[in-house]
Design goal:
The structure is a single chain. With 211 residues, the chain is of the alpha+beta class. The chain contains 5 helices and 8 strands, in the order αααααββββββββ. The protein has helices at residues 4-8, 12-31, 34-48, 51-54, 77-128, and strands at residues 132-136, 142-147, 153-157, 162-166, 170-173, 183-189, 196-201, 208-210. The chain has a 4-stranded antiparallel beta sheet, covered by helices on one side. Strand 1 (132-136) and strand 2 form a beta hairpin.
Length: 211
């Protein structure tokens, strides 16, 4: 700033402006006020004749409005709590239904798998002209198909949320499709013991029913 007079000229008006600018700078150093800073910067730009070339740097005359802001829209704490309560109510209603749907879905899938396994054993026995056995282990979620000629050994996995209980450990189909025993396989949900399905070998002809 010592050479500011030389850079902008020595005219009387310019000298007065430079002096005023120096006083403003001193005030800024002492106050550290943002409004004073704006005034100093505006005067400096006007002094150099660069205010229009840079930006339209105007300082509002009504400084009382500098810190005034329009209210920002958003959620209040009460509104947020109301939303959370509504979400909690919907969750309390929906979660039990969702859980029941999952249980029913697993039971239905296990029932279909067992029915298909028994029908497949009957058809394989006829097609291979051999005896095919379907073995169940109570309290588990799997079954196995095996043939007496050793050409078939298959394990079928059921959903791990179910367990099976069978009246007989093994059902064997002959080459003509006759089964040696009749009985019922019960499928129970491990999540809700009150929910179950069943698959029955209704007669010695190997008729399969599900309920």
């Amino acid at each position: 700033m010592l050479n500011l007079e030389k850079s902008v000229g020595y005219g009387k008006d310019m000298h007065q402006k430079v002096g005023a600018l120096r006083r403003d700078i001193d005030v800024h150093r002492e106050s550290k006020n943002c409004v004073v800073t704006l005034l100093v910067m505006s005067k400096f730009l006007n002094l150099l004749g660069a205010s229009r070339a840079c930006v339209d740097f105007r300082v509002p005359t009504d400084f009382s409005r500098l810190n005034m802001r329009k209210p920002e829209s958003g959620f209040t704490l009460i509104e947020l709590m109301i939303v959370l309560v509504i979400v909690a109510i919907f969750a309390a209603i929906a979660l039990p239904n969702l859980s029941n749907n999952i249980i029913r879905g697993d039971l239905t899938q296990a029932q279909a798998n067992i029915s298909q396994a028994l029908r497949s054993a009957k058809n394989e026995a006829r097609g291979r002209n051999t005896r095919i056995s379907v073995a169940f282990v109570n309290g588990t979620s799997s079954l196995t198909l095996t043939s007496t000629d050793g050409g078939l050994a298959k394990t079928i996995l059921l959903p791990n949320t179910v367990t099976i209980t069978s009246a007989s450990a093994t059902y064997t189909f002959s080459p003509i499709g006759i089964v040696d025993l009749i009985g019922t396989i019960t499928i129970t949900s491990s999540r809700d013991a009150a929910q179950n399905r069943s698959v029955a070998i209704a007669n010695l002809l190997g008729q399969i029913t599900a309920s």
